[in-house]
């Protein structure tokens, strides 16, 4: 079977077999049950934001793309009063928007921003401090901040599962093309098709990592739609007796990933899924001391305590994994060049999170936004030097204002990892189906 991948995962010291075993036996069951908890299932998002890059293609009106948002009564009481520190000042929003640049090669003009900060400091020392703090925090972010404006609404993720929607054609291709082609990290001589694995060797580690995580995310999305496919009639591989039209579509999976239909790229795309999984797993392991102090508050004491226990159990399992992705070799030499590369990396990733507002199917946009925000949180944890410094000292500084993760960042981080973990498990299911067909 082409999906029985062998050997090391590229740019990692770990083998595919090790990840399969660890994920399917240990992480997947724990994470799946954790993500049923109220703290993790309610996600606040603005699906009506305008696309900043091109005028809207038709909003998809397919039934399968519909997202059911929560009524006031559906939301746990503890989340209704959710207080986001970022709402305290609008300056951050100003800073965020002024940092967003489509031109990846342009250096940031920080002077205007810092000038703005200085005036405010003379107005009020305290407010000035807050602004510097906000500015400082914004430097760590790898994606646009979660939507907290008036149009943001809670969505119950369990009622809106990621699955086949039928979103395809030019609108979907434009999003993928823009992500792959217009985000600068590609060999200088541009080529018309998507990047091929053989061209990756000419890129430095950081750029390869960037490509691999995007490709891994793309793989995961396409596995979910193949594993939760809508058939026009009853599906023989249905997972659920009440939903007989939904289920595994082995042909769809093969068409998307077998070497013969993908110019030999399919298995490499599958390997990229393992790569992004290891990267996000490492981020959770790194943030474990911080996460262990969270309350996971929803207002329901027994539920919150169960969530906390489930988190501790999962963190212990994840920490026991010996061969995580090693981020310490990225942007490592401390030179100006490395700093510039890191800034570019951050800007490209922020662009990708903004492209998600252009997705023409609400359901795909919901999960696209969630997964890019989760990946952005993982990158922030891995590459924020502030986080490294704090880890070297005692646990106590985590309680300070100097580093914090918002609830939305924690929710997206775990849900994004949950999507990848499920995809790896689905590959095993497809493998078994192929095996039983050849017997
Ligand atoms: P696409 O998946 O659109 O790929 C375009 C091209 O990219 C391919 O021809 C190939 O050359 C290359 N490519 C494919 N996979 C990879 C990879 N892993 N790495 C590198 N290159 C690759 N559809 C749903 O049914 N449900 C969803 O929830 C959903 N969510 C989506 C979320 C986003 C953000 C986007 C952009 C699309 C989403 N889609 C979803 C649509 C889906 O991803 C496909 O675009 C669609 O099914 C059309 O598939 P395709 O075969 O034309 O190739």
UniProtKB/TrEMBL annotation:
Protein keywords: Disulfide bond, Electron transport, Endoplasmic reticulum, FAD, Flavoprotein, Glycoprotein, Membrane, Oxidoreductase, Redox-active center, Signal, Transport
Cofactor needs: FAD
* Cellular localization per UniProt: Endoplasmic reticulum membrane
InterPro entries in UniProt: Ero1 (IPR007266), ERO1-like_sf (IPR037192)
KW Flavoprotein (keyword) present: yes
**What's the name of the protein?**
Ero1-like protein
Record: residues binding FAD: 163, 165, 176, 215, 218, 256
* Source organism (scientific name): Apolygus lucorum
Instruction: Name the coiled-coil region(s).
Output: none
Chief localization: endoplasmic reticulum
Q: Which GO terms describe its cellular component?
A: endoplasmic reticulum membrane
GO terms of molecular function: FAD binding; protein-disulfide reductase activity; thiol oxidase activity
| Residues annotated as catalytic | 361 (nucleophile), 364
Cystine residue pairs: 60-65, 104-143, 361-364
Could you list the residue ranges that cross the membrane? none
- Family assignment from sequence similarity: Belongs to the EROs family.
Membrane topology is: Peripheral membrane protein
């Amino acid at each position: 079977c082409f999906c029985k991948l062998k050997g090391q995962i590229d740019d990692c010291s770990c083998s595919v077999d090790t990840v399969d075993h660890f994920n399917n036996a240990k992480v997947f069951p724990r994470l799946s049950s954790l993500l049923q908890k109220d703290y993790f299932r309610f996600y606040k998002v603005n699906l009506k934001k305008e696309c900043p890059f091109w005028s809207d293609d038709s909003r998809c009106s397919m039934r399968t793309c519909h997202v059911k948002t929560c009524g006031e009564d559906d939301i746990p009481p503890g989340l209704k009063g959710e207080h986001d520190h970022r709402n305290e000042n609008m300056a951050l929003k100003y800073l965020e928007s002024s940092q967003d640049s489509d031109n990846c090669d342009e250096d940031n003009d920080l002077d205007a921003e810092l000038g703005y900060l200085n005036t405010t400091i003379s107005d009020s020392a305290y407010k000035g401090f807050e602004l510097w703090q906000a500015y400082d925090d914004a430097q760590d972010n790898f994606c646009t901040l979660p939507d907290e404006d008036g149009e943001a609404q809670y969505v119950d993720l369990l009622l809106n599962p990621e699955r086949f929607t039928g979103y395809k054609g030019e609108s979907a291709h434009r999003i993928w093309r823009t992500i792959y082609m217009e985000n600068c990290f590609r060999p200088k001589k541009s080529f018309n098709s998507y990047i091929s694995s053989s061209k990756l060797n000419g890129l430095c580690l950081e750029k390869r990592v960037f490509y691999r995580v995007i490709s891994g995310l793309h793989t995961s999305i396409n596995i979910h739609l193949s594993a939760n496919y809508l058939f026009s009639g009853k599906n023989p591989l249905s997972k659920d007796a009440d939903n007989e039209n939904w289920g595994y579509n082995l042909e769809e999976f093969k068409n998307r990933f077998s070497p013969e239909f993908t110019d030999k790229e399919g298995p490499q795309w599958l390997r990229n899924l393992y790569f992004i999984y290891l990267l996000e797993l490492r981020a959770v392991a790194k943030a474990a001391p911080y996460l262990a102090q969270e309350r996971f508050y929803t207002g329901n004491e027994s539920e919150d305590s169960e969530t906390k226990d489930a988190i501790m159990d999962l963190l212990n399992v994840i920490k026991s994994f010996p061969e995580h992705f090693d981020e310490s070799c990225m942007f490592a030499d401390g030179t100006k060049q490395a700093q510039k590369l890191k800034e570019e990396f951050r800007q490209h990733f922020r662009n990708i999170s903004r492209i998600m507002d252009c997705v023409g199917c609400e359901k795909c946009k919901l999960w696209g936004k969630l997964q890019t925000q989760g990946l952005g949180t993982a990158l922030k944890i891995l590459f924020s030097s502030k986080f490294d410094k704090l880890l070297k000292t005692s646990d106590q500084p985590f309680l300070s204002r100097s580093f914090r993760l918002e609830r939305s960042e924690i929710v997206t981080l775990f849900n994004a990892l949950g999507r990848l973990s499920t995809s790896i498990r689905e590959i095993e299911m497809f493998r078994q189906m192929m095996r039983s067909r050849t017997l």
